[in-house]
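hey can u check if this looks right to u? its 137 residues, i copy pasted from the old doc so theres a chance i mangled smth
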Amino acid sequence: KQKKPLIYALGAIISYIAETQRSDMSYIKDLNIYETNRYMQIDYSTRRNLELTETMRTKEKKGSLLWVLDKTKTAMGARLMRHYIEMPLKSPTQILNRLGAVEELYSKTAEREELIEQLDKIYDIASDNSIVRDRRG
């Protein structure tokens, strides 16, 4: 019952987009609702001391956990990696699902290489609405 207003609002938004953009919306198959209780809440001091995204002394990415883990090839991937590090999941089931997805992609070298090649062709729309081609690799 608590989610009914949210469902109505999402329906209205999708309807508005379909009407004003005059584009096919059939690619939208699933929507994820952001719930704060899904993620571990990490305060600023802990985040800083753990050096999740920058080092304490130099405030640089190099030397942080993000620097170690971020082998992404696109700006979109880099943002997602940062999100994963800054907002860790709490649910063991969701953690195992994510780990399984990573393991599957890691074990399928040919498919992974094809995906990297395809992602390299995708343009990223930056927050300032300008189209940016970001080659991180």
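The chain is about 50% helix and 5% strand.
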